[in-house]
Amino acid sequence: MKAFTLIGTAMAALILAGCTGGSGSSSSPSVSPAPGAAGATGDFKVALLTPGPVSDAGWSAMAYDGLKAIQIDLSAEINNQEAKDTQIRDAMRSYAQKGYDLIFGHGFEYNEPAIEVAKDFPDTVFVSSSGGQTAANVGAFRFYLEQGFYLAGYTAGLATKSGKVAMIGGDDVPSIRSTFKAFKAGAEAAKPGITVIEVFTGSGQDIAKAKQATLGAISEGADFVIHQANAAAQGVFDACKEKGVWAFGANLNQNDNASGAVVASATIVAGPAFLNLAKSVKDGSFKGGIALMGMDQGAIDFVLNPALQDKLTPEVVTAVEETRAKILSGELTVPKDEF
């Protein structure tokens, strides 16, 4: 593992398994207030850039929960918008020119643009979810979501009847590949020789593509499916419901999805992490660097769906809880990529 430079005392409480953006329109984005932020005024201003809508009940929604925590706790003026590809630098510059103190880019793809733009705005702090580049006013943080994905894979490996499980991704980026690597490791630890199908659709927004990819994996025999598909995750859940197989939620707790197909979720608890970072910026203690945070700090969880727990045998549930305990104690180190 690379050595990590802690981002100040408060920032040391952070982490993030970045998921992310991908292709999109190259037109300049419009800046609009975050829901509930219209008319907000304050001496501390925080912006959030996401690769998809904050209504996606997953990756982008998780970050928006963190933004709202900052608004409530610090009485901050907040704003958010979708920004992808060539939109990213324009959006960052626009917020910085408007005097924003902290600009979050929620994904690996925001790290390099932040390094570039930050040079022109030394009084603004830029932070990306994942990424390896830092500067005095640029940081990166990642949640160790791989731990939750490992437990999902372990569950799938223990419970599969077909001996085949699947991973459906939207955009093919390092952060998503790292969580898939962990899911596969968990599945193989539970059931050596298991077949783990991996598919990327190229879009975290296209529900139809996600559904077709999932149906394809199911046709190959997959009976448990996990996703990193952002807003397109609904296509994964719909396909699982249609074919009577089980899905895992990701990033947020998606166990209550209307499909009724989500047996458990690998989740990120974003609020405290985002809030601690914002406090370090506001009080002037922020120092550019990279921070990692996992299950032992309460930032990552694996949540079984109580409504579907009878679909897993007591032996499976017990084995998963024992594996969780090994991760928490440090006895088991879940694999993750550095990027």
Could you give the count of β-strands? 12
% residues in beta strands? 15-25%
In CATH, the topology of the largest domain is named Rossmann fold
Low-confidence stretches: 1-41
Residue-averaged pLDDT: 88
In the CATH hierarchy, the architecture of the largest domain is: 3-Layer(aba) Sandwich
Sheet bearing the most strands, described?
A: 6 strands, parallel
**The named CATH superfamily of the largest domain:** Response regulator
What's the CATH class label of the largest domain? Alpha Beta
Description:
By secondary structure, the chain is α/β, with parallel strands linked by helices. It is built from ten helices and twelve strands. The chain has two domains: 8-143 and 270-294, Rossmann fold, CATH 3.40.50.2300; 146-268 and 299-329, Response regulator (Rossmann fold), CATH 3.40.50.2300. The N and C termini lie close together (11 Å). Residues 1-41 have low confidence and may be disordered.
Brief write-up:
This protein has 339 residues and is an alpha/beta fold. It contains 10 helices and 12 strands.
